[in-house]
Amino acid sequence: MKPNPRFHRHRNLYRLAACITLLCTTSLQAFEPNEWRQTQMLNVPAPGLVRVNLPATTLNAAQPGLEDLRIVDAAGNQVPYLIERPAPDPESMLRPKEFRSTIEAGVTRLILETGTTAPIAGVSLETPASQFVKAVQVEGSHNGANWKKLAVGEPIFRLPGGVAKLRVSFAEAAWEFLRLTIDDRRSEPVPFIGAQLHRPRSTAPAETVPITIKSRDESLGLTRLALDLGTANLPLASLRIDTSEPLFTRSITVAVPEIAEDGIRERTLSEAVVYRVDVDGKSEARLDIPVEQQIRARELLVLIRNQDSPPLSINDVRGERRLVRLIFFAHQPGRYSLLSGNSQCGGPSYDLSALSKQLRNATATEVKPSSLAPNSKYKAPEALAALALTGAKIDVVKWKFRKLVPLTQSGAQQIELDPDLLAHALPDQRDLRLVREERQIPFLMEQTSISRPIQLNAVLANDPKTPTLSRWSLKMPQAAVPFTRVVCASASPLFHREMRLWEEVTNERGDKLPRELGRATWDQTPAKATREFIIQLNARPQSDMLFLETNNGDNPAIELREFRCYYPVTRVVFKTAPDSTHPVWLYYGNREASAPHYDLSLVADELLRADRATVVSGGEENLSSKAERVGQTLTGSARYIFWGALGLVVVVLLGLMSRFLPESEQ
């Protein structure tokens, strides 16, 4: 008699249910869900295994590791569950057993003996060539004689600026030999010195998620997109750039703001090259950026390096997330509750790890949870994140400057430090303090990848004694602003110049001395698309006047225009509420101050996940006395003369006052 597969399937399911019951009897106890903020209904139609694909809203409401998820049946008992996170295996590479390269008429031919019987999904070539674009045909063979086409007209390239695509992908299969034919008819052959074979990676389910472009910042050679993922704790698989540009290549970095020891930094998650190129009249494009990371905050950063090309027009950014599934065994049909939103509880222990493989592979009923709803039994616990953040008292007598911080709403806020503040604060900004009613407001410093430009007033300042030297004086908006780059443009089509950037500083004896800030070579040709020059500063300027000069030798002088400088954007991130009677002030300018240390670790994740209101600080107030203000404007010997004269005046006044005092009795 033939065995009935349905009977065996049901018998295995009942055995699995019995094991789950035995393993979890200690967990099936009364449960009071009053510390969970959110609930979702699960309508289970029949007893047995149930699989729930957790929506992004559930991931957003729960802890990052989903430790606070709980399933409760109609009787109020916890139901054990297992979390399943399907993810693709990482792709591996191996060297071919043999690599041969020959150059023939109009083509370069590469023969690879793979040395493996495992499936192959692609090959990456290695070459020292720095610039080329080629079309490749790939063929596979089992005996080295009969060949089957796997890919035709696939582009490979390496362009200036490090942008490259040297991989050719094809349908995965096992091949003992691979033959790559590289078309050299339109350009000179390039040497290929090796290759790596790509083993296929396993697939995993994913679904599309909506993404919003919150902001776009253009810096020199860099586009910075701030993306709103809509929810936190998203297991992001990939991003896709939507652009109508017909031809382009760009190197892209995906980063995320992250809490570091000294504030908020941008941590790189992944890097990729996106392109749309034309090879032999065939348009080839790659617009996907692999990520495969859980994004704990809602904000994601995409940094597009444009080099000397204009910024890309970005129409949209789309994303795909990996599924997160929850599996449990329902002993009876009915309504179950999925609870989330408890920031203080730990993860449950259900002893289901022994059955993880059986549960993941078993047939289960798919149940879709209802929308998130407030838990009617919720009772708010004591939580530091819900309290107003205040620091210790502070005496601001030694602080020389302050700015008003006008607040219009409660919650997370951010202030971008402007050039005036950066000039008068210490270089590491350790003297910054947010103050309300003589009490500090804790904050985090955020170092961003944004650079802000400032236009400079440039005047030709040649030295008559050196006619071959061209010099420009650049008036800065403020002394001591931490500029990192100076940029200018030239209409001259052809030249080679050594450029030098310097300033004039005064030492303590009053002597004026040149101080070099940067040096670079500028080569300009008529075929060059951009005619801008960038010089990086290797030191922070001390004055408000810089000089850019070059020696023309026996050549005509070059013309320069469109001078501008760039400084990095730093933000202060904090949490507070507006108060019309007690304003918030941002103090700075205390050279004796040490860096503040606040207990912000308990709410750092909240600050990162929350939408921040951007606050523009008010005008600068100088809190120094009149004598101090005069002293601040003097340098070198003038400062000593001023304070010496002031001391002499004090001595004379004391002498005059002593003459009017009554004489003491003998």
**Total beta-strand segments:** 44
Unreliable sequence segments = 5-10, 22-28, 382-387
Strand order of the largest sheet: 6-7-13-9-10-11
Task: Tell me about the largest β-sheet.
Answer: 6 strands, antiparallel
Structural class: mainly beta
What share of residues are in beta strands? over 45%
Oligomeric state of the chains?
single chain
Mean of residue pLDDT values = 86
Taking all Cα atoms into account, the compactness measure Rg is 34 Å
Portion of residues within helices: 10-25%
Distance separating the two termini: 138 Å
Shape: flat
DSSP helix count?
Answer: 7
Note down, in words, how this protein is organized.
With 666 residues, this protein is mainly beta. It has seven helices and 44 strands. The strands form nine sheets. Strands 6-7-13-9-10-11 form a six-stranded antiparallel beta sheet, with no helix packed on it. The longest helix has 23 residues, at 637-659. Mean pLDDT is 86; it is low at 5-10, 22-28 and 382-387.
How is the secondary structure organized here?
Elements lengths: L4 H20 L13 E7 L3 E6 L2 H6 L8 E3 L8 E4 L8 E2 L3 E7 L2 E7 L6 E7 L5 E10 L6 E11 L5 E2 L1 E7 L3 E7 L10 E5 L7 E4 L2 E8 L2 E7 L5 E10 L4 E13 L2 E17 L2 E5 L1 E8 L3 E7 L8 E9 L2 E6 L3 E7 L15 H6 L3 E2 L6 E2 L26 E5 L5 E6 L2 H6 L8 E4 L2 E2 L2 E13 L1 E4 L8 E7 L9 E6 L4 E12 L5 E13 L7 E5 L8 E7 L8 E17 L7 E5 L15 H6 L3 E3 L4 E3 L3 H8 L3 H23 L7
Parallel strand pairs: 2-27, 30-43
Antiparallel strand pairs: 1-26, 1-28, 2-25, 3-26, 4-25, 5-14, 6-7, 7-13, 8-12, 8-14, 9-10, 9-13, 10-11, 15-24, 16-17, 17-23, 18-22, 18-24, 19-20, 19-23, 20-21, 29-42, 29-44, 30-41, 31-32, 31-42, 33-41, 34-35, 35-40, 36-39, 36-41, 37-38, 37-40
